[in-house]
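Handoff note, outgoing to incoming analyst
You'll be picking up this chain. Sequence as last confirmed:
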Amino acid sequence: MHELMDIPHDLLMLVEVVEAGGFSAASQRTGIPKSRLSRRISALEKRLGVALLVRDPRHFEVTELGQELFQRGLKIRDETRSALTTAQDSRDEPSGTLRVACPAALSALFIGDVAIAFAHTYPRVCVTLKTTDGTTPDDHFDLIIQPARQALADSSMVAQQLMVSSFVLVASPGLVDAAGFPAGPRSLAGWPAIGWSFHEHASKWTLWGPGGETAEVPVKVRFHGDSLLVIRKAALAGIGVAQLPKLMCQKDIDEGALGIVAPGWAPPPMSIHALYPSRRHLTQAGRLFWQPFRRLCHRAANWRLGQDS
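Most recent structure output, in case you need it:
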């Protein structure tokens, strides 16, 4: 009987190891010692009389039966999380952990403030806020804030669009004085530019113009980064022309530290989405975090529309 009770627990460990792609990575993600993970998986294999994983120092592979048990273990984990969510929701005050991932720029703009206020309001919740480069993280999170210029790939997660962020082309006054004010997209050809790793083609930018026109502009990338916060600093330093969210650089524009170049032309806007496993598995803490966050996004979108009018 005791051995039967161990099986669900060992299946959950199998899920973590397979998802992480190895014992070392799973240990880093979960905090469970690598030796314990290996011992429990070996015990499960011995109990079942079959191999679930093929591993040696240079090779890690999941057997066919291992894949089948992995899928069953995923269902057990989902049901376990659902049961814990139900138990936590029965309390008046949320507790437990809340893991949120979002791009560093959004964290600096307002999501970090939301997380801090939430932690202050609900002291029984342990909040983890992880900054990303805009891509979907591999680890498990209760809520992921994800920017996208194209439709999100199909996944098992629920995706809800929060706002649309407009982008602008900006450069420092010194750079504009040195290179000459560009009246249109063709005038930008060959300009020193700041690339962002979110774009597939760093040396060719797509701009939208009046009446739905588009233009492909070749640029000379002098500086490249995966953080919009660093790209903004590089633009302020006069390194090159940059594509930045208007929300991020509006104050710089108002104060004259940055200027909009090629008026009437701009990079395509970007949608900001919230991803979470499912409404059924979103914890009470996740739903309470969600409410002020959505209000902030709504205010930010209205602020943007007011600035654009």
